[in-house]
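lol ok so funny story. i was supposed to be doing the assay writeup but got distracted and ended up predicting the structure for this chain instead. priorities right. anyway since i did it might as well share w the group, maybe its usefull for someone
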Amino acid sequence: MDRENPGLTRMAVLSSDRLVVVDYLNQSVKLFDVVQDKVLHQLEVDDRPTSVGSLPKARVAVTLPSKNTILILHCDSKLSIVDMITVQGWCWNIAYSNKLLIVLYENPRKIEIMNLNGSVVKQNELNMSKKIYWGDKLSVMTEGDVTSIYVVDYNNKRILRLDENLQVQQIYRLPDGAKPWGVLAVGENQLLVGVFGGDIWQLDSTMGRWTRLGETWLIGSLAFCHERQVLYGADSSDSVKRYAIS
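and the output, tada:
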């Protein structure tokens, strides 16, 4: 049972009909059915979770920053903890690709690639502001043999593209000096970027072309379901909204 109004900070697509959403204010993780439009199960955790990333075999990874912990949850009819990974730092955002976790830290300001057992494969410090705002600051996409890691640099009004060695390969500056709060790679070299002021922009990273999709007032996480061609997001009322993306 929620003690406060929902604080929906991140969400991840588990299947075409289910999302996993972290509720920062209520220190919980929720399994959400998008067809029935209801919460199927709510798991209370021992910290305020900030990020969630989908894993294979109906699992997700959830970050608990002040505990320096990543939880691995199995998601069936309910959510259950199957593993815990201790990390060195305030883990804020998480993603998964090629059997590896990618973790973005607030303190110290760094990014790591690690195995699911917690052993670090690569790490790199980031020359960015340590001030974190709500929204997804990390998104990963593998297309063909190329894995791209996208990171929001809020104060410098740009998106960084890193390679698998965590080296910056490209910098995308937002139009009109907008400040990004979130980034989501959706495939075919397309990024969705939320900016303060309510707009969602689409970037064709191959052409470097920005297109304004419209004003949504989303403030939290973005999640895209390829099967349904639907964008999910949390708005200022902390409810999950759906948007058709062509």
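The chain has one domain: 8-244. The domain at 8-244 is CATH 2.130.10.10 (Methylamine Dehydrogenase; Chain H).
back to the writeup now i swear
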